[in-house]
Write a structure and sequence with these properties.
The chain has about 280 residues and is α/β, with parallel strands linked by helices. It has one domain: NAD(P)-binding Rossmann-like Domain (Rossmann fold). The protein is built from eight helices and 14 strands. The strands form four sheets. A seven-stranded parallel beta sheet has the order 3-2-1-4-5-7-11, sandwiched between helices. Strands 8-10-12 form a three-stranded mixed beta sheet. α1 links the parallel β1 and β2. α1 packs across α6. The chain is globular, with a radius of gyration of 19 Å.
Length: about 280
C-alpha cells in the first residue's frame, strides 16, 4: 500500500533531505511551502502552497488528505532567545496542527529539539525532566505538551522526535559545516572556531532524514524519542574529521570564538528508545 506523506518545511535544510529520502520509498509525496512554484528536481513530488501564518480552515484537505504529516516547519531560527518562538510561532503552530487533526489527520511526526532538556549535562534520555533555558526550547516543549493533551480529545498517532545536531549540505551560512567548507574553498590554512571541547551528539543530515522517514512511515506513533547518534564527540574532533576526509591540512584556531551561552558544555542523546522504535518500524 502506498502511503501519502505531506511535509512542511520542505524547502528547509532538513526538509530537502527528507524529500530525497522519501523519494526512495513507496510514497506519494506532498511538499508544502509558502511559495507554490518550487522546482525540486525530484520526481513524484506534488507541491502545494500553505502558509502556517494563515492556515486554511481545513488544512488536512488542503494537504491532500495525507496518511501522515512530517512537520518540520518552524520560523525564527537561529535566534533561539527570541520571544517570537512562544509569542507568535507557538500559537500559530498549535492552531495549524489542531485544525489538521480535527479535520482527520491520522498521524503526525513532529520535529522537537534537544534544547527542550535545557542546561542538563551528560547522556539525556526521554524520561529526563525538560527544563528549557531558551525561548525556542520552551516553545517546542510547550507544543509537545499541547499535542499530548490534544490526543486525549482527538486521538491520533504522534511521534515527537527531539532532534540533536546534524550537519551537511544545505545548512545555513552561519553553521560550522558551511563556514568550514567555505574556508576550504578559499584555500585558508587556519580555521577560527570556539575552544572545541564541548561534547555534542552529531548525525549527518542524510542519516537524520532517513531516520525521520523511518519513524514517520512506521506503524503507530512512537511518542517522544531522541533522534540522535548516542555517541558523544567533541566539536574539535568532529571538525578535524572533516579536514581529514577533505585531505585538508588546516590548523584549527581553537578559542577564537566564545562558547555559546544557550547550551551546556557536555550533553548527548540516549538512543535506546530510538533503536527500539526503528526496529518496530
Amino acid at each position: 500500500m502506498v502511503t501519502k506523506v505531506a511535509v512542511t518545511g520542505a524547502t528547509g535544510y532538513i526538509g530537502q533531505h527528507v524529500l530525497k529520502a522519501l523519494s526512495k520509498r513507496s510514497a506519494d509525496i506532498v511538499a508544502l511551502s509558502r511559495h507554490a512554484d518550487q522546482q525540486d528536481g525530484i520526481n513524484r513530488i506534488s507541491w502545494r502552497q500553505l502558509d502556517l501564518a494563515t492556515p486554511p480552515a481545513n488544512p488536512y484537505e488542503a494537504m491532500g488528505h495525507p496518511d501522515v504529516l512530517i512537520h518540520l516547519a518552524w520560523d525564527g531560527l537561529p535566534q533561539y532567545h527570541s520571544l517570537h518562538h512562544f509569542e507568535t510561532e507557538l500559537p500559530r503552530q498549535y492552531t495549524f496542527l489542531k485544525r489538521s487533526i480535527e479535520c482527520g489527520l491520522p498521524a503526525l511526526f513532529c520535529a522537537g529539539t534537544c534544547f527542550e532538556y535545557g542546561m542538563q549535562t551528560g547522556p539525556l534520555a526521554e524520561n529526563e525532566p525538560c527544563m528549557p533555558s531558551n525561548a525556542y526550547g520552551y516553545a517546542k516543549h510547550a507544543l509537545q505538551q499541547q499535542l499530548a493533551f490534544l490526543q486525549c480529545k482527538s486521538p491520533f498517532a504522534l511521534t515527537w522526535a527531539r532532534l540533536f545536531y546534524s550537519y551537511g549540505n544545505g545548512q545555513g551560512t552561519r553553521s560550522l559545516w558551511t563556514q568550514f567548507h567555505e574556508a576550504h574553498r578559499q584555500g585558508k590554512t587556519s580555521f577560527d572556531m570556539s575552544g572545541g571541547q564541548q561534547i555534542r551528539d552529531f548525525l549527518t543530515v542524510e542519516t537524520m532524514a532517513e531516520r525521520i522517514v523511518d519513524l514517520a512511515l512506521g506503524p503507530g506513533g512512537h511518542g517522544v524519542v531522541n533522534l540522535c547518534s548516542g555517541a558523544p564527540q567533541t566539536v574539535a574532533d568532529l571538525v578535524q574529521g572533516w579536514a581529514t576526509k577533505l585531505g585538508w591540512d588546516v590548523r584549527l584556531n581553537l578559542g577564537h570564538y566564545p562558547y555559546p551561552d544557550y547550551e551546556p558544555m557536555e550533553f548527548w542523546g540516549d538512543d535506546t528508545l530510538l533503536r527500539k522504535a526503528l526496529i518496530a518500524s
